[in-house]
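Aim 2, interim progress: modelling of the NAP-bound target.
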Amino acid sequence: MHKIKVDYICKKIKLIIHMEVFKLLDIQKNTQNINIENVEKVKCLIIGSGPAGYTAAIYASRANLKPLLYTGLQMGGQLTITTDVDNYPGYPKGVTGPVMMEDFKAQSERFGTEIRFGIAIDSDFSGKTHKVTFDDNKIIEADSVIIATGATAKYLGLECETKYAGIGVSACATCDGFFYRGKDVCVVGGGDTAAEEATYLAGLCRKVYLIVRRDSLRASKAMQDKIFSKGNIEILWEHQVIDLYGENGVEGVNLVKKKGTPDEEIIKLKIDGFFLAIGHTPNSDVFKKYLETDTVGYIKTIPGTSKTNVTGVFAAGDVQDPYYRQAVTAAGSGCMAAIDAERYLSELK
Ligand code: FAD
Ligand code: NAP
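Predicted structure of the complex, ligand included:
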């Protein structure tokens, strides 16, 4: 009995020692995280490497702000997952998305932008200088911050969406609609974006099927009227996507009508293009503690500027644009953000 008690006490002491050692290691780890060597000070921090981020970098570096740009996971932004970009001025013969973004990068480097791979994981905009923590274990203390983290189109989460990405599946009618001139396409969604995409495609395509999961649209009355006025848009009410099929690209979609009801029916629909319009998610989570956003999460800027509600923090591109979401508008707002940052910094002196 006595031996068991001694063993028990020994084990308990060992456990306590272990826990204390772990605590100590944890403290060391935390101290390491805020080690002075991990803190860097810069005049201008740019987060994101899409058209908005790189354009901000071109302007900021030319204004001698010595910008530091973190690329995020998707180096070059959304355009790196597309093929032809035909609507960006300056490329009369068109250009592929990845090549165009390499051009953007090279131009920003030409004027001295420092580019680093890393993801912003936390922000602190409570003080005079703004702190952003990155997953490379660095805390960047910046006099000005330009947020250009873009937005991500929502997908249904089906395997076939990845399989046919770029060969029939798109989340941007303005970008890819051109490739489906005279063909049959479908648009999934029932909101304003879906209505807008369907209306746009109706001007190019032979037939547009709008696949709506409920028996009514979420889109505004004005947008609904536009859809109803187009003779080549057919709304498939209460339809949901099962999957896509096709040999070397999309050739059709399998749908289920009135799922879960006695009238449930499986439908095979021949189409050439499959457009998703079920909403976008702006990449603003890391900054939401301090920055005002709309209900969807788009960062609010003072109209006509890139200024957010926090002085010295600016937003550009899709992360603050629920409406246009184009490369050229993103680049334009990146330019605005760099000019706003430059003027803000010159007033600080
Ligand atoms: P993005 O291009 O989305 O770039 C965001 C950047 O932020 C990325 O580099 C990402 O890695 C980074 N980032 C995100 N989160 C973090 C974080 N936490 N930390 C650090 N970095 C982060 N527009 C056109 O004008 N013409 C077209 O032909 C066209 N085609 C398109 C095709 C497709 C398939 C898609 C999806 C979009 C297309 N668009 C097109 C729209 C266009 O791509 C966007 O409007 C544009 O890229 C937005 O630029 P941006 O700089 O705001 O953001
Ligand atoms: P939204 O209003 O959230 O609508 C998303 C649509 O997609 C809804 O119809 C929704 O169906 C459907 N949907 C969502 N997930 C789905 C799924 N898994 N399967 C099938 N359908 C799905 O998004 P949005 O249309 O992108 O609009 C976002 C905001 O921008 C809105 O405030 C909108 O008014 C605004 N906007 C305005 C204009 C304009 O004024 N011209 C243009 C574009 C966007 P349910 O209805 O069943 O939920």
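The mean pLDDT is 90. Helices lie at 2-33, 51-62, 97-110, 159-163, 173-176, 192-202, 221-229, 327-348.
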